[in-house]
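Exercise 7.
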Amino acid sequence: MFNKGVHSFKDTLYPAELVREIKSAQRFGISTKIEDIDFKSIMDRMRNAIQSDISMIREGLESDDVLDYYDGVARFIAPYTLKIGAETLKAPMIFLCTGSKPFVPPIEGLDGVTYLTSDEVLNLESLPESLVIVGAGYIAAEYGHFFSAMGCKVTVIGNGPRVLQQEEPEISILAKREMEQYLDIHTGYRVVSVEENKGMKKLMQ
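Solution. The predicted structure, written as tokens, is:
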């Protein structure tokens, strides 16, 4: 499985960094301004890059002389036995490297509102005015950085005590300090319910 969210990082972070650099040029005595940001063009470029990466990976797997590549859905039919289409494969050891998919939290009212997963947000054609990101990990940090640089008002809500909890506390504190220049960040909160057009109905600490 190809996790397109991970492979979008370089194609969203770089435009965001360019915007940040241009906006900070005044500090170095350089007078400049951004006339317009073509959000659709940036997203199209990112999606094209993802498809190019997918094609390159597939071609590499298919052309490898020491690797058998099967394009299909696999399932276990017996211990150490996989079924893929008409093929049956057996091996004494099987590595499951299937990638990942977005986790949708059990939030009351979520089924009745329009929301986007971290994969689906890559299909946006126009920049939203505001965005609430549930979660405060590295994907939330990337998207928060990108969308705020594009001009969107971004709020990040994390269930844990700090952002980027997988990092050392000192790094997490520094990252939060930098991110708060552009984002609204709330840690130690859990979103318990939502309503259409009203955003967060309630936060529980």
